[in-house]
Predict the structure.
Amino acid sequence: MVEHDVTLLLRALSDGKRDALDQLVPLVYDEIRRIAARHLKRERVNHTLQPTALANEAYLKLANQDDPRWKDRAHFMRVAALVIRNVLVDHARARNREKRGGDRLIVTLVEDAVGDTGIDLDILALDQALEQFAADYPDEAQVVELRYFGGLTGEEAAEALGVTRRTVDRRWTFARAWLFRRLKHTDAGKPPGKED
């Protein structure tokens, strides 16, 4: 992706020039789909959401915003990570309603976007824990959204947030420890009806 072109198109779109969207689509869609595919690789094999469906839904939500105010590519990626999180949570809630808690979407919290697996957990439990976490640690929560839901590397997250890679690594380490502890102690990492 040519960052300069994306930034100019995002600004044009923010200024109300909806025709910029036609030029923006080919530049950002592949990146959104790549993020979706990377994220869904960490999920259980039997989930029903596929990378293309996740990317399409996330892209439609981004494209259909009434008054987008994206400053640049980094800002767009922060918003995209949040939209991907919301799509996954909405999907899990819908599945949960259908099955009354018996078929929640299970994901894996990992070291990084392509790193070793950590613990399997219910995405609704993760979303709830992240809401609590963000209330006290908003900067660290942004790192989780970018790294986990956005699929960005540490370097990409640092660029998107305008901080150093070391700051992102420190926030990511703290966030993972906090989330592991919270989910482990509340037993929220286990899907309903599952035993050890």
